[in-house]
Fold:
Amino acid sequence: MSQARGLYTLWLREVKRFLRDRTRVISSFVQPILWLVIFGAGFGMHFSIPGINYQQYLFPGIIGQTLLFTSMFMGISVIWDREFGFMKEIMVAPISRFSLFLGKMLGDSSDALIQGIIVLVIGTVLGISVNPMGFLLILPIMLLITFGLVSIGLIIASFMGSLESFGAIQTFINLPIFFLSGALFPVNGPLAQGVPGWMQTASVFNPLTYGVDALRQALLGGSYVALQPLWVNITVICGFDIAMIAVGTWAFTRMK
Amino acid sequence: MSNIHIIETNKLTCSFNGLKAVDNLDVTVDSGEIFGLLGPNGAGKTTTISMLCTILKPTGGYAKVNGYDIVKEAMQVRRSIGIVFQDPSIDDRLTGRENLYMHANLFGVPSSEQKQRIDSILKLVELEDRADDLMRTYSGGMRRRLELGRGLIHYPKVLFLDEPTVGLDPQTRDHIWKYIKELKNTHDITIVLTTHYMDEAERLCDRIGIMDHGKIIALDTPSKLKETLEGDVITVKAAQIDELTALLAEKLGLMQSVIVDGALEITVRGGRAIMPRIMEVAADNKIFIDSILLREPNLEDVFLHYTGRNIRADNTRELHGFAAIQRRKIR
Ligand SMILES: Nc1ncnc2c1ncn2[C@@H]1O[C@H](COP(=O)(O)OP(=O)(O)O)[C@@H](O)[C@H]1O
Ligand SMILES: [Mg+2]
Structure:
């Protein structure tokens, strides 16, 4: 079927471009190491979670952060494509806007997933102990998290005229989502005593809250007291993904 | 040539904030012809093409391409067409071959035929030896050739070429012209090309629509268009050009004249007989003629005739096109 082939070729393009961009792959090593080693050690001195050490607690959070930042950043490819004229080539192709969006989204998600796996490997090499069964579970969870986040990035980019405005919007969205996701410290649940009520409420509406919680469940196993059962987390993430894909398809339909 | 209209527009209009870039366009293109839209920069050629290839919605009127409505049946239109955009539209982080494969997949070319078609296209545009290099290492002309080839992989019924040779060196232009002619002879294809180069329109097109301010002001075969001028063009260069113009109008009744780049251009029947009389009038009035030239009218004269302007009067725009190529090279 031609829609599927069109979708596949768009996916392949994103992945090829990403893998050829060595600097992007290599630079993705540095940030998580700094977070895990320096921030993890410093913050861990003043902060304790029953049953696990802080670095273990932080590790899934940093994976979530990597997925968030790289996924949102992927939207930039839409702006590049428009700038360099390649978008026109895609827009005149006999392929539905849904396939177009999905192809690009899946490609970008694959790229973000690769970044996530790199962080996963780094953490393991640094000696952060994880639940061995978690590795099987964490890949699909990471992928599901990226779908919705990449979609947000693509949607924003499809409305943005320039790289500058894209960067500004990112700052306003990325950091709040990151800080309010529970990646660094509990914002919600039994451990979040003393956290202001508005932050707790905001975290309920933050899709990454459920993502980070699911990542912790996968990597830390039974020693982690989760906010929600795993199936609830997965359901919320999937619902978010579907909604964002729908909005994304609409956004691409009205894009010039 | 069959007389089926493969493209048909009816009062096709596109306005940008009140400015009618394309103004009630009624035009038909026959199946199998090379149809040219000739006009200065800003005439509305690209806007017309953008609407016909469904990436821009008309604000008025309608058009059909290969029998399909460009708005309601956009998907079928896209399946029927190939387009080479005025501005670059390749992914320069991929190789030439990868760009072609991607296009073949996007346009639903069966996998079993892709390799053979792409190999033959690469041969046609003479890029076989560079096919596996990243396109950012290509020259402007090579990129253009790849884009031309790419437009053909899916065997479109109609191929749109928007200013196919802007900013290319003469050798590459010649190469591309030959290639376009060859295409028409070997494929069952209709080509619509836009250009602001007279020589390009004249050499390639079966019929030409001269476009200005969003309207087609004359439409015919190149030779018929030139015949409408009925006569020869005499170009006279002299110091007192205004005085001479007035004198010639008064004494010889030569009214059809325009001053272009300081030279007087007179369109007249039987130019050979008139030339000595022009010299006579000049001599009688002590006007020294630097040069006088007789030639057949060209499309430039046709444009001048209909608009009272020279097609390339606007030099800054020309530079714009060149700057665009520079950008293309930097990328
Ligand atoms: N996206 C746009 N927004 C506003 N004006 C436009 C846009 N595209 C084209 N125009 C205007 O429409 C007119 C026709 O442009 P165009 O179709 O590109 O001409 P051509 O291709 O013949 O050089 C010009 O005056 C141009 O400035
Ligand atoms: Mg143009």
Residues 2-254 of chain A form one domain.
